[in-house]
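User: Hello, can you help with two protein structures?

Assistant: Certainly.
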Amino acid sequence: MTHTSIGFIGGGNMAGSLIGGLIADGWPTDKIRVSDPDNTRREHLSSHFSIQTSDDNIDILNSSDVLVLAVKPQVMAKITQALASSIQQTKPLIISIAAGINLTDLSRWLGDYKNLIRTMPNTPAMVQSGATALFADKSVDQSDRDLAETIMRAVGLTLWVDTEDQIDAVTAVSGSGPAYFFYIMEAMEKAGVDMGLSAKNARLLTIQTAFGAAKMALESKDSPGQLRQKVTSPGGTTERALSIMEDKQLQQIFNEALNGARQRSHELARILGQQT
């Protein structure tokens, strides 16, 4: 599998994270190629990873068994339509990491091409701690599914969803999720400062607490609810804080917020799919 040639169309941060993860996993650098219109970005990728770069998408496509589409969603239609005839000839596995692009639209832009896998990674992939959901067209065989999972696992956890509609839920939970935690951390820092802590100490305490809680949740067999109960002593400080959050209906706020994110993901997919 490590002899498979991977080409990236687009060399932005997410592509760079995937490339770094793949190389760390032992993928040969001479089997990874990237195209990007920005010369500065190409030079950075070439010097940092010792990989081949180009400003010609067709050149990268023609030398790749797997093509990772890592461009902005707003330009996906234009770029894929320009690649369509060559893709029909070379028939690579195509993995899209562009948010909001449905497989139906991607297939249409590529001339009814079907060997497609859609993924939804999140920004912690940039520190090899991402969470990525994958959905494949029904015609994609198991070996290509395994290959796509191996590639995306280079930057963190991977999981498959049963229907493409579930990608909208994934977007709401993990795609946008890091921002929710940053928001909570921001609020905790401010509260700490308001209570007299220095900004530096409030930040360090907040970040380490978030890290420790996530590590406990990852390593424990208990659910988050069970872990919460275990650290909540009756009549104690934690119970007082949680009771205030419950009075403010924090769970309901989260439910409404994530459903709003899911709905917006669906709306954006519809809008982006109207590109011609």
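That covers the first. Now for the second protein you mentioned:
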Amino acid sequence: MTLRLACKVRRRKRYASYQGEQGTVASNLLNRDFLADAPNQKWVTDVTEFNVGDRKLYLSPVMDLFDRQIIAHSISTSPNLALTNDSLREALTFLQPGQQPLVHSDQGFQYQHASWRALLEGAGAVQSMSRRANCYDNAVMENFFGHLKEELFHHVRFLNTDALAAALHEYIRWYNNDRISTKLEGLSPVQYRAQALAA
């Protein structure tokens, strides 16, 4: 008797925001140097896409490379300028006087846009971009997306985008406060930052 079983292979699907040159492309100043010795020196950001039935949801996080903490994020049903600009605006509120982070992204149209560049310039931040179609230039953020999808999204069937959005907010809270990392001496990002700043 043949059971006709089939093995479902999960293929990674990346959200590609590149739409040609829509504005200004910045140099790759980060140059895969993902280490920072203080908060708000180097940030990385990107957008990832989720499919829920016939609808899509997009997440735009900003990560501080000092402790890999997601310091800001926004969620939307559209990968528009508001999605990325809102997360950057939130991140910029955490800057202390004199802090001017390097902010790294891919070459997505949102990051080439004048509104993104204006937010960076207004805060004295420096823009950096991955080379065209080179995900390794933003490997730490890609790694975060991989963990998020493996630990949350691929194990739950979400009925709608509202349920997924709530789960994403909770996952990021857990990731920052409770998820330990060997790269952070067995601490969570929040614990690592608190310990480092208290030293």
